[in-house]
Amino acid sequence: MNISFKNSKRFVYSFVFIIFVIFFMLIIKIFLPSLIFRVEEKLTDSVYFIDNIFKYFKDKDELYKENQYLKKEIQNLRIQITNLSYIKKENEILRNLLSFKESYTIKKWTVAKVIAFSPENMIKSFSIDVGSKDGVKPGDIVITNGYVVGMIGDVYSNFSTVIPVDDKNFKITVRTLKTGELCFYQGLDKGKGYLKFITPDQDIRVGDTIVTDAISGNIPAGIPIGIVKNISQKEGEFFRYVEVDLFYKPTLLNYVIVVSR
Amino acid sequence: MNLLKLLTIGLIILILQSSIIPRFLNVNLLPDFIFVYLLLTLMYANYHFLQFIVISLILGISVDSISGLYPVFDTIIFPLTVIVFYLVKNKIFISNFILKLIIFILFSIISFFAKSILIYFYTGIFTIAVNDIYYITVSNTSILYLFYYIREFLYGRVFEK
After folding, report:
1. Phi, psi dihedrals of residue A182, rounded to the nearest 5°
2. What pLDDT, in 10s, does the model give residues A112-122?
3. What is the pLDDT of residue A100?
4. Facing A154 at nearest CB: one of B63, B68, B115
5. Are A122 and B115 in contact (CB under 8 A)?
6. Considering only CA atoms, which of B89, B1, B91, B73 is closest in space to residue B37?
7. How far is B123 from chain A (nearest CA, A)?
8. Whole-number percent of chain B with pLDDT over 90
9. Do A119 and B17 touch (CB under 8 A)?
10. What is the mean pLDDT of residues A212-231?
11. Residue in B109, B139, B130, B104 with CA at minimum distance from that of residue B27
């Protein structure tokens, strides 16, 4: 076979050309789409931009309405958050109240909310939202946060009044926690009470906790009332005067437990 | 002002004092708004003695029914206040604000003592808290002072018949 030099040169050129074409096609295949897409992207963006400008003027009212709706929605959600936080707090308070129940042998109890206080400054009673329909009876003990706050006075069908532990009408048999002395308790004044008929031989100490005793009806024993603050004896009197500082704080009242006798 | 309106306002004050005001103020002692209201009506409104007795009786019974502990407490105190006020009113011409203020302070203190005596009859314990007397008297008179200026502002049309 006779191949001339001229032909061989042409063959090389044609081969280089083909290689170049293939290489060019590969470059185009790799880079061009991205280039095209980029251009397309910019074009589309610009079109969207122009379209948005038109839409902005066109849909201004709709946007305004949507904004208003979203603002309302935010307010609603904020209210919901506030309600939920209140419910959470309320839930914690009620859980604390119920955890107290496990510590004592309480047969029957009702959770109640304090709805009103006495309008008379000299009378310290308050009202709760449970009554005879809920099985509340006069003389039932009212408890909150683990201490006695009062005793049920008048009972109506849907609500009842509570004689607070610092009222002069509140009388109960109690026991001292450390020495176990049995005494009579009576309310005296704001946040104060006193133990009656304490003979000199009875072992009452300052700082001792006063708790309820089962001797006065079917009240669960051992519920704290207050702490002995002061012991004194007047000249010529047989009984000692024992002042009790109460745990009861009327301004903190919200939910209470009514323990049935 | 109509007698029924006067009574309605009194009952609204009673409800507010027992339910909402203790929640907001959150204190042991509150100004005796109903007693202050009764004294203000006695001073500024012109009604017959018997009409005042009826108002005081209704307010007193309402307070006692909400308080619950004593069957008759403000039912005695309120009409007695009206009677004593009329006895004073017949002797002195109450026109000066200072005179009104003095009467207000005296009535607040007297009612406090009368209530303490009544509680003694019910419970057998007689206690007088000096701080309570001071607080109630000052708060009651400050309400009178406030009312006086509001009334001046409204040209005295609040309690006109």
Report:
1. -90, 130
2. 888 888 888 88
3. 67
4. B68
5. yes
6. B1
7. 6
8. 4
9. yes
10. 82
11. B139
| Whole-structure pTM value | 0.69
**Three-state secondary structure call for residue B98:** helix
Q: A82-109 pLDDT, tens per residue?
A: 778 878 877 887 777 777 666 666 677 8
Mean pLDDT, chain A, as a whole number?
A: 82
**pLDDT, tens digit (0-9, with 9 covering 90-100), for A4-51:** 556 778 888 888 888 888 887 777 767 766 666 667 677 777 777 877
Q: Confidence band (pLDDT; 50, 70, 90) for A214? A: confident
> Which residues are CB-contacts of A44 (< 8 A; sequence separation ≥ 6)?
none
Residue pointed to by tokens 């009470």: A193
- Whether residue A250 lies within 8 A of chain B, CB to CB, comes out as yes
pLDDT at residue number B95: 73
Spatial separation of the C-alpha atoms in residues A76 and A74, rounded to whole Å:
5
Mutate to test the interface with B, among A113, A115, A122, A155 (most CBs of B within 10 A): A122
At residue A255, the pLDDT reads 85
Instruction: Provide, rounded to the nearest whole percent, the portion of chain B with pLDDT above 70.
Output: 93
The one-letter code for the residue type at A41 is E
The C-alpha atoms of residue B27 and residue B6 are separated, in whole angstroms, by: 28
**Contact: A153, B22; criterion CB under 8 Å:** no
Contact residues on chain B for A255, CB-CB shorter than 8 A: none
DSSP state for residue A122 in the 8-state scheme: T
In one-letter notation, the amino acid at residue A7 is N
B93: closest CA of chain A, how far (Å): 30
**Which residues 56-85 of A have a C-beta within 8 angstroms of B?**
none
Q: Which residues of A, range 14-43, sit inside 8 Å of B by Cβ?
A: none
Say yes or no for a CB contact (<8 Å) between B127 and A188.
yes
- Tell me what ipTM this predicted complex has: 0.80
Q: In this structure, are residues A248 and A191 in contact, taking their beta carbons and an 8 Å threshold?
A: yes
Handedness of CA B117, B118, B123, B129 (dihedral sign): negative
pLDDT digits (tens, 9 = 90+) for B135-155: 888 888 888 888 888 877 776
- Retrieve residue A166's tokens: 């610092």
Q: Which amino acid is at A150?
A: G
Q: For tokens 């017949």, name the residue.
A: B90
Q: How many CB atoms lie within 10 A of CB B151?
A: 15
Chain A 105-134, CB below 8 Å of chain B: which residues?
115-123, 125, 127
Burial A2-11 (b: 16+ CB within 10 A, else e): eeeeeeeeee
